């Protein structure tokens, strides 16, 4: 049914149609539908009492369609990336005049495909990755994760952290030092904020980080 569902998780079919598609008997199809429509006290997804589908006019709707489509799409992207890297390596071996796709780059792309965190400044992170490529120091999977952790710890200073590394020609990202007021000023400038009359530096800092 997942393969037959439209983008909204609706399956337009009859019981005989499902049986024919699955190559099973009508009785087996009816039994399976009854299980999917019934509550499941042992389901890992407690929503809708563990039911998998709901009957609608003209067919059924998959209750957790978005969840399973995301899992399927993730697996498809991983398979595509693995196949692309394998083919890329073959091409590089044949054409020695082209820059080699290093093992570190291949491993990093394969191992870090879905590593990120909510609130990541993607543009700043992409600039950092480009910087590493330009200095010919591609990130290993471990370095990828550790540098990403730095940005996750300082969500409101990501751009400042990346810019400081690029400006100084450093290889990695570093936590802000005690000279953080410079970072706050830069962040305030990016947010088009300025201190209010009578506002202390601590109050201004909190407002910049909050807004």
Overview in brief:
It contains nine helices and three strands.
Structure commentary:
This protein has helices at 15-22, 26-37, 65-94, 103-111, 122-134, 141-153, 158-168, 180-190, 201-210, and strands at residues 10-12, 53-56, 59-62. It is mainly alpha-helical and 211 residues long. A three-stranded antiparallel sheet has the order 1-3-2, covered by helices on one side. A hairpin with a 2-residue loop joins strand 2 (53-56) and strand 3. The longest helix is centred in the middle third of the chain and has 30 residues, at 65-94. The protein is elongated.
Largest sheet: 3 strands, antiparallel
Give the rounded overall mean pLDDT: 80
Q: How much of the polypeptide forms β-strand, as a percent range?
A: 5-15%
Total strand count, please?
3
Classify the oligomer.
single chain
Q: Count the DSSP helices.
A: 9
**Poorly predicted tracts of residues:** none
Instruction: Kindly state the percentage of residues in helix.
Output: 55-70%
Order of helices and strands: EHHEEHHHHHHH
Radius of gyration: 26 Å
* Outline: elongated
What is this structure's SSE topology?
Blueprint: E1 10-12, H1 15-22, H2 26-37, E2 53-56, E3 59-62, H3 65-94, H4 103-111, H5 122-134, H6 141-153, H7 158-168, H8 180-190, H9 201-210
Antiparallel strand pairs: 1-3, 2-3
Defining traits:
about 55% helix
């Amino acid at each position: 049914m997942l393969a037959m569902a439209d983008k909204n998780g609706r399956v337009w079919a009859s019981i005989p149609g499902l049986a024919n598609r699955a190559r099973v008997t009508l009785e087996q199809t009816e039994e399976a539908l009854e299980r999917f429509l019934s509550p499941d006290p042992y389901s890992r997804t407690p929503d809708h009492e563990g039911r998998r589908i709901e009957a609608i006019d003209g067919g059924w709707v998959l209750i957790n369609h978005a969840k399973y489509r995301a899992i399927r799409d993730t697996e498809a992207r991983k398979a595509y990336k693995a196949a692309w890297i394998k083919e890329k390596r073959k091409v590089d071996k044949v054409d020695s005049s082209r820059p080699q796709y290093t093992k570190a780059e291949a491993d990093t792309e394969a191992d870090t495909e879905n590593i990120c965190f909510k609130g990541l400044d993607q543009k700043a992170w992409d600039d950092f990755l480009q910087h590493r490529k330009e200095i010919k120091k591609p990130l290993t999977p471990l370095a990828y994760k550790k540098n990403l952790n730095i940005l996750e710890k300082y969500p409101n200073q990501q751009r400042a952290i990346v810019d400081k590394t690029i400006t100084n020609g450093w290889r990695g990202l570093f936590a802000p030092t005690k000279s953080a007021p410079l970072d706050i000023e830069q962040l305030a400038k990016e947010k088009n904020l300025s201190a209010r009359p009578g506002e202390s530096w601590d109050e201004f800092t909190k407002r910049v980080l909050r807004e």
